[in-house]
Structures are given as C-alpha cells and as structure tokens.
Amino acid sequence: MIVIVCVALTADWLIGTLLHNLPVVELPFTYGVLLGPLVIVWYAVGELGSLAEHAIAMGAPYPAWLPKILEAGKNAVDKVGEELTGPPTEPSEAGPVGRGGARERTEPSRTVGAKLSGLCDDDADGRDGGGHE
User: Fold this and answer.
1) Which helix (H) or strand (E) holds 31?
2) Sign of the C-alpha dihedral, residues 29, 33, 35, 39?
3) What is the H or E stretch that residue 3 is in?
4) What gap in Å lies between CA 57 and CA 107, rounded to an integer?
5) What H or E segment, with its residue span, contains residue 130?
6) How far from 36 is each of 1, 20, 81, 89, 104, CA to CA, in Å?
7) How many CA atoms lie within 13 A of 106 on its CB side?
8) What is the chain's mean pLDDT, rounded?
9) 65-85 vs 35-57: helix axis angle to the nearest 10?
10) pLDDT tens digits, one per residue of 36-81
11) Are 65 and 73 in contact (CB under 8 A)?
12) Alpha carbons 104 and 73: distance in angstroms, whole number
C-alpha cells in the first residue's frame, strides 16, 4: 500500500513537472496534486469499510443504515467495474497455470490438528485418541 501511495505521489510530481516545463501543454487550471490524495482517500475509505464490516460480523452494535450503505457502495463499485471490464468470468478449465500448475489449497481440519496436539479425547469411533484404554 505504501509503495502504491509513493508511486502516485511520484506520478503527481512528474506530471506537475512536465506540465510546468512543456510550453505546448496548457491546462485551463493549475495542476498541483491529484493522484496521491486520491489514492490515499481510496485506501482510507476502503479500510474504514472493511473495519465496519468486520465489527458487524463480530456482533458489535451498529446503526441500521450502516450495512445498507456498505452494500450500496459495493454494488456501485461492482457496477462501474463491470461497465469498464465486462461481467466477471468463471475460472477456465484450461489446465495448469504457470510452471507449477494450479493447485487447490487445502487446510487440515481442526479435529486433525487437535488430535495431533493431544487436545482431543475421542476418535471418530469413540475410542481414546492417545492409545490409552
């Protein structure tokens, strides 16, 4: 995130320098900065929305209008994105991706992890998991 903000601020500086030193290009307004503050505000709004969503999911009290506003914002962004790029596509079944191929990420179940750590007393068949009888 910091890298993207730095790139946006550098682009602002570069655009400002080019506009100041190229007499051919003349804008009807004075260009100061645009991209840097835009990127910073974009990140701030996105993070605040994420914090609100997580607080709601954890059961924190919230005003009734908050989930509606968050959903409306998501829908507006999705609509604009689909207008610019088209509707989302399903993943292709074309085969491997890259050199290693596409791999499905699986996580061990909590029961397996608990049994390995000795925190679980019973196996699925009802016997003691530690080999004790």
Assistant:
1) none
2) negative
3) helix 2-21
4) 23
5) none
6) 12, 18, 21, 32, 38
7) 5
8) 75
9) 130
10) 998 999 899 889 989 998 999 999 999 999 889 888 988 888 888 8
11) no
12) 31
Q: How far is CA 48 from CA 1, 38, 87, in A?
A: 15, 15, 27
The tokens describing 3, both together, are 């890298």
Say what the pTM is.
0.51
Q: How many CB atoms lie within 10 A of CB 62?
A: 12
35-56 per-residue burial string, b: 16 or more CB within 10 A, e: under 16: bbeebeeeeeeeeeeeebeeee
Structure tokens at 7: 């790139």
User: Where would I find the H helices in 22-120?
Assistant: 35-57, 65-85, 110-117
Residue 43 CA to residue 69 CA, distance in Å, equals 17
Lookup result for tokens 């601020």: 9
